[in-house]
Amino acid sequence: MIGRVLPVPRRLDLVVLGCALTLSVLGILFVSSTTQGGRFDGLATRQAVWVLVGLGAMLAAVLFDYRVLLKFSFVIYCVTLVPLVYLLFFGETIANVKSWIRIGGFQFQPAELAKVATALLLAYLFENEDDAKMKAATVAKVGTIVAIPFLLVFLQPDAGLAATFLPLLGVALFFGGLPARAWVAIVIGVALLAGIAWFVLADYQKERIGTFLNPETDVLGSGYQVRQSKIAVGSGGFSGKGFRSGTQSQLRFLPVQHTDFILAVIAEEWGFLGVCLVLALFASLLLRALALARVARDRGGVFLILGVSSMLFFSVVVNAAMMIGLLPTTGIPLPLVSYGGSSVATAFLGIGLILAVEYRRFANA
Amino acid sequence: MLRVRENRRELTSRIDVARIVVGAVFAVLASAYWYVQIVRGDHYFGLSENNRIRSVKLTAPRGYVLDRDGSVLVENEPAYSLLLYRREAKDLARSTDFVIRLLGIPAEQVRARIERGRRYAEFVPIPIAENLTLEEVAAVQARAPEHPEFAIGVSQRRLYKRGGSAAHVLGYLAEATPVQIRESKNAYRLGDWIGQKGIERTYEKLLGGTNGERRVVVDSNAREIREESRLESRPGQNLFLTVHRELQELAEECFAEQVGSAVALDPKTGEILALVSSPSYDPNWFTRRVTAGEWSGLMSDPNHPLQNRAIQNTYSPGSVFKVFLAYGALASGEVDPNATVYCPGQAVYYGRAFRCHRRGGHGSVNLRDAIKVSCDVYFYALGRRLGVDGIARIARAFGFGEPTGLDLAHEKPGLVPSEEWARTKRRARWYPSETISVAIGQGPVLVTPLQVARALAGLIEGGRLPTPHLFFASQDPRTGTRLRYEAQPKKSLELDPKRLAIVKSGMWAVLNEPGGTAFGSRVPGLAAAGKTGTVQVAGRNAVPRAGVDRRRLEDHAWFAAFAPMDDPKIVVVVFVEHGGHGSSAAAPIARLLLAKYFGLPIKLRAGEPGFVQAADRSAAAARPAGEVSP
């Protein structure tokens, strides 16, 4: 009632928005640095277009009532799974995997959208499942919701992309309040699964893991990427070699530098300072998102922020760690920064959902 | 059923845990980057520089070799090699087939080269074949669109312009061996060419110059982006040799059919005017990579063409040795030059008869005549008086038993026997009868032709032994600055001119008085002096066994000469293996060389270079060069 009389304060969180925008601008800047001249010329402009598309998606998410989205989350979830199933049967193989759909001149990864949809459905689930002790049925539901897209992507076969669904499972179980002894059981289960996975993984996937364990063995093979990326990062030193002056990136020693390895380019050209800037922006964004989750109006909003943030967090950490060889090369891009339309657009969509929860914190109905 | 709703506070406390976890993970990430970028930064910076900078060698052009008058003996010519870029090769089997069909080289060789090349980085081209002809180069270039993996490499190859001429002086180049690379402390790399023999070896540093280096920035495909720095190479020095080309070539012609050696040098300076070892070889073989067949042919030749007979083969000096003993005995006061020895054709020492080469005997001979007629009996007596150690002292004073110091490697010292040598090296006592043989240059005494030439130079120069050398001058090809050879201080041994005159007079008589052993080889108008030598190879009554070349039983022939008498300009030593008598086999060659050197006309005899048959004379007379004396 009051809402109709007094204008309800609508709150756009400028910290989250500012961090996301700054990161995407950095992305465009360094995509242009690594792709000037040569066959990748013009990718920076494309990236800028994708950032605009992402901003549009973000704006839509903010303005649209997320509670309506939550209500229809099951339908949305199902709709986003359709292209994943389609890909398995009719997908075009690009770089060993069937994870891209080509529309006009653009390529799109439907799995990225499926991640957001999964986060939505989980939030909707916990909106209603609020028992003090998590029920076994709830655990089963959570497991099923995450497992379906995970398996569809895993079969593409893109294990790295599939792995980005796993933080959703962790978040749901942790924040849903899974008891300690269940965690013990999960750890044992995962260990067993890992053992089985070794027999299921494709050779090139095993090779990547092997390379991770000992990157010096095959300098020009798969260890090459990690080695060149470490050289790029390390040679940047404290303040870097200067924008567009990184020898590793400009002379193309770095592989897929504008996509997965863009952080190595930043590290080489802007040094440790540049890395700190990027990490600080992500840290501020995520910590702010958690703060917003803490005060969110409803349980669905809390879980929506947590789900979206966990995926961002997971991608950032895995990507940053693989630049310096702390984790194997998995093909996970740096959200908002790496070149790639679907990655940037869905990242902004996720940011939009975080902002949406805060936007309607004091709104009724 | 009663639902117990979760307290919101539980959820917020979990979020607080998550905030700590997120903060901690970012702190860990930042410190990991701190380690890589700050702590290990210099290490990785070095690696990134290594990545982008490649060093390309700029090979210094090797210096030319010229004779003393500036005619080019050795120069460089472009050589083409076939290179394979593995990165471009899509189908190695097809590439291999192409090479085999084009060049007709064995498939195993191509595969072996490719295998060897795999040890290096992918961007390093693999050399498949060297010394392509211009037709082959054209064929490769014509097929370039189909076979982009092949490229033609251009390098400089050594060209010995006069083939086998002076081969033992010049030597040859070959790829540096692993041992040579190690000894150079990696100044040379695998595949570098390095002087292996001759002056190419001795003056490797001088001729080779200093390689330069280009440092280029490359991208990850090893494509050159730009040049970072350039250090120009310093070309090798041009080397002028003391060799008198016409004399050298005439001497080689004289040895066309014979095995042996000739040395001509300037007695005052030690400059080598000619140095011949026959048979010879063509050093160009080595720059074109010797095939296994050629190599084994060269190695199995019983006459060992690679051997430099002037410095690496040692022989008994024969009667040539007598002049040194004669002087040595005069100098020590052991003999009166006018005292005579009666030669009945043989003498008996220690119960054994020693014959003179002249069965009928020479009658009474004094020292001068003994040299002139080369009387063995006179020198038997002299040798017995001197004793083997007395002979050894004289021989060493003239430089026998040690390398002469010529600027070529692997010179043999020869052997001067003494009682001590017999005791310590031979491990059998010295028999006095051996001394009698040594007195006429037979027995265990061994010398090289160059040692004889140097000793004779020392004798006629009053005791100053020159250091024989081939280095005449070097010249910087850019500045033209020339460096001359500075004569080394000579070894001094005091000779008394009056006593020396007696020995020289005896040697003059050898060529210029009837009855002298080389009277037939005098050059009209030239006051030359010399001494013949004949080295017995088999016993006088030896019968050739089946399977042994009769020629191998022939005596070795020596002749050592100098001219002119009063101010010697040249010493010539000729040695013909199994040539027979010194007077008939060696002296005529020396005659030709002396005539050539002093530009004096002589009447050529049958078989001598430039000789024209009487019937052909009229025809040859039409040619302006036909009648020219050597």
Helix-strand layout with pairing:
The complex is a heterodimer of chains A (365) and B (630).
Chain A: H1 2-5, H2 14-35, H3 43-63, H4 66-71, H5 73-90, E1 101-103, E2 106-108, H6 110-128, H7 136-154, H8 159-163, H9 166-176, H10 180-200, H11 203-213, H12 223-236, H13 247-250, H14 262-294, H15 299-323, H16 341-359
Antiparallel strand pairs in A: 1-2
Helix pairs in contact in A: 2-3, 2-14, 2-16, 3-16, 5-6, 5-7, 6-7, 6-15, 6-16, 7-9, 9-15, 12-14, 14-15, 15-16
Chain B: H1 8-39, H2 41-52, E1 53-58, E2 65-66, E3 72-84, H3 92-103, H4 107-117, E4 126-129, H5 134-142, E5 150-160, H6 167-170, E6 173-175, H7 178-183, E7 193-195, H8 198-202, H9 204-208, E8 212-218, E9 224-231, E10 238-241, H10 245-254, E11 260-265, E12 272-278, H11 284-287, H12 292-300, H13 309-312, H14 321-331, E13 341-343, E14 346-349, E15 352-355, E16 363-365, H15 367-373, H16 376-397, H17 419-426, H18 432-438, H19 449-460, E17 464-465, E18 471-475, E19 482-484, E20 491-492, H20 497-512, E21 529-535, E22 556-563, E23 570-576, H21 582-598, H22 614-621
Parallel strand pairs in B: 2-10
Antiparallel strand pairs in B: 1-8, 2-3, 3-4, 3-5, 6-7, 8-9, 10-18, 11-12, 11-23, 13-16, 14-15, 17-20, 18-19, 21-22, 22-23
Helix pairs in contact in B: 10-21, 14-16, 14-20, 15-20, 16-18
Largest sheet of chain B: 7 strands, mixed
Q: What helical percentage do the residues of chain B reach? A: 25-40%
**CATH homologous superfamily designation of the largest domain in chain B:** DD-peptidase/beta-lactamase superfamily
Radius of gyration of chain B, CA atoms, in whole angstroms: 36 Å
Mean pLDDT of chain B: 87
For this structure, the quaternary state is heterodimer
- For the largest interface in this structure, which chains are involved and how many residues does each contribute? A-B, 47 and 44 residues
Class derived from helix and strand content of chain B: alpha+beta
CATH-derived architecture of the largest domain in chain B? 3-Layer(aba) Sandwich
C-alpha termini separation of chain A? 10 Å
- Compute the number of structural domains of chain A: 1
Structural class of chain A: mainly alpha
Rg of chain A over CA atoms, rounded to whole Å, is 21 Å
Number of strands of chain A: 2
CATH topology of the largest domain in chain B: Beta-lactamase
In this structure, how is the largest beta sheet of chain A organized? 2 strands, antiparallel
